[in-house]
């Protein structure tokens, strides 16, 4: 019986054997190419600043766009690292690990309730302490060269041109407690570490025959200012513009809803300029609560009952400098006058404070220290007496007002602790 002849192998098995035999050589060639590529210097090293700008902004490199000329062939190891088109990029359970993504932008909030240091560094510096001290010294020594109406609030106020060339708003209060509130609010801002947001302010004594006022004796007669009255001199600042409450407050209040706490989760996607402004707003709202100032955002909230669009209008006594810094103007409703009207205005001031749950860490630290030592009034008195030569003309807070200031500091401290606890459970 004849044995059957074995069929000759077809072309595909033969081709497979040939490729199998060639794999070691191919592997060697690719590894040599990789080693050579690693030894060769990059013919066009990129600047650490990134790729060159394209026509419409920062352009992508040819390799990133899938165009030729992208800077050399990929190595074998790089090819292995790139998943095939359309394959899912996930980590774990044998799937492809996620491809490296660009580093995320730094979070604007640290530890849940504090603005980040990087963000705080972008806040415009405002009125530096040295600059303010120089202006105050010059203003106290200068003569008042002229007094003009307009530009400084109520009709009893005047815009003064001083002999050193600078200008100042001279505020004559309806009663002395308004000038006292202006002065004490300015120095409380210093205790809290936010005095750079307020224009430099000094007290002055109206004396028609005195050296400071002698050049404007005739203007004083027409002003109806009382001889011996204490007025405030506040540095004039050019090119200030109006400020509208940002969305976390303006949109909520304008829609008639209860104000909700501003939290870290609401900040995603906001441009840096808005975040920088929110840092300043958090200080402003805390400051206005401590001083019980009702003549700023609180007055806008009060006006919602007859003007539903008021939150889209300019905020009272708040202006923006050309560099974006907020300027806390005209604080004469604070501390004295405001404390007398707490029953009327705290239903607006307190919810406004509760709507803030992110703070400057330095502000929170100062509040905590004033709470721990129970020293709010004592610190304010010490600073006021040391820096204002005319402090005795107006006096200081009454014992009851000093107690109210400490109670409000304690309330702010408890609110910050509540925000910290809320952030810990999220």
Task: Please state the structural category.
Answer: alpha+beta
Distance from N terminus to C terminus (CA atoms, Å) equals 87 Å
List the total number of helices: 16
Query: How would you describe the shape?
Result: globular
What value does the Rg take, in angstroms? 34 Å
Low-confidence region ranges? 1-104
The strand order across the widest sheet is 5-6-7-9-8
Give the SSE string. Answer: HEEHHEEHHEEEHEHEEHHHEEHHHHHH
What share of residues are in beta strands? 5-15%
Helix content: 40-55%
Kindly report the average pLDDT value.
78
What is the number of strand segments?
12
Described by strand count, sense and barrel closure, the largest sheet is:
5 strands, antiparallel
Report on the architecture of this protein.
With about 425 residues, this protein is an alpha+beta fold. Helices cover about 45% and strands about 10% of the residues. A hairpin with a 5-residue loop joins strand 11 (about 315-320) and strand 12 (about 325-330). It is globular.
List the helices and strands and how they pair.
Elements: H1 11-39, E1 53-54, E2 57-58, H2 62-65, H3 76-81, E3 109-110, E4 114-115, H4 117-120, H5 129-141, E5 144-148, E6 158-162, E7 167-171, H6 176-192, E8 201-205, H7 217-223, E9 230-235, E10 241-244, H8 247-254, H9 272-291, H10 297-303, E11 314-320, E12 326-328, H11 336-340, H12 342-354, H13 361-373, H14 376-387, H15 391-394, H16 399-425
Antiparallel strand pairs: 1-2, 3-4, 5-6, 6-7, 7-9, 8-9, 10-11, 11-12
Helix pairs in contact: 6-14, 9-12, 9-16, 13-16
């Amino acid at each position: 019986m004849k044995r059957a002849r074995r069929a000759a192998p077809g072309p595909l098995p033969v081709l497979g054997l040939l490729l199998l035999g060639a794999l070691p050589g191919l592997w060697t060639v690719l590894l040599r190419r990789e080693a050579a590529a690693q030894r060769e210097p990059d013919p066009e090293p990129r600047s650490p600043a990134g790729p060159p700008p394209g026509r419409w902004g920062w352009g992508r490199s040819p390799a990133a766009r899938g165009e030729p000329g992208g800077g050399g062939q990929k190595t074998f190891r790089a090819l292995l690292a790139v998943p095939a088109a359309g394959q899912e990029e996930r980590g774990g359970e044998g799937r492809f690990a996620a491809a490296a993504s660009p580093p995320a932008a730094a979070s604007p909030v640290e530890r849940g309730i504090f603005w980040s240091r990087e963000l705080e560094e972008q806040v415009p510096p405002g009125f530096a302490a040295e600059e303010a001290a120089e202006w105050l010294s010059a203003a106290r020594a200068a003569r008042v060269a002229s007094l003009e109406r307009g530009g400084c609030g109520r009709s009893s106020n005047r815009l003064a041109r001083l002999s050193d060339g600078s200008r100042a708003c001279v505020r004559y209060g309806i009663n002395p407690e308004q000038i006292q509130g202006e002065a004490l609010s300015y120095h409380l801002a210093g205790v809290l570490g936010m005095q750079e947001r307020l224009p430099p302010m000094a007290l002055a004594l109206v004396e028609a025959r005195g050296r400071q006022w002698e050049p404007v004796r005739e203007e004083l007669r027409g002003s109806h200012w009382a001889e011996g009255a204490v007025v405030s001199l506040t540095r004039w600042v050019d090119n200030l513009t109006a400020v509208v409450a940002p969305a976390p407050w303006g949109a909520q209040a304008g829609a008639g809803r209860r104000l909700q706490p501003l939290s870290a989760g609401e900040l995603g996607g906001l441009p840096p300029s808005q975040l920088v402004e929110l840092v300043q707003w958090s200080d402003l709202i805390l400051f206005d609560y401590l001083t019980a100032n009702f003549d700023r955002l609180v007055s806008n909230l009060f006006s919602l009952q007859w003007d539903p669009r008021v939150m889209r209008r300019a905020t009272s006594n708040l202006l923006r400098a050309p560099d974006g810094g907020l300027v806390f103007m005209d604080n004469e409703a604070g501390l004295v006058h405001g404390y007398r009207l707490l029953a009327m205005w705290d239903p607006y001031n307190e919810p406004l404070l509760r709507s803030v749950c992110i703070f400057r860490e330095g502000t929170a630290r100062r509040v905590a220290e004033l709470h721990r030592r129970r020293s709010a009034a004592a610190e304010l008195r010490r600073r006021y007496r040391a820096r204002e030569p005319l402090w005795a003309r107006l006096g200081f807070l009454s014992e009851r007002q000093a107690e109210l200031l400490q109670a409000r500091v304690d309330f702010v401290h408890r609110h910050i602790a509540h925000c910290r606890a809320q952030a810990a459970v999220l």
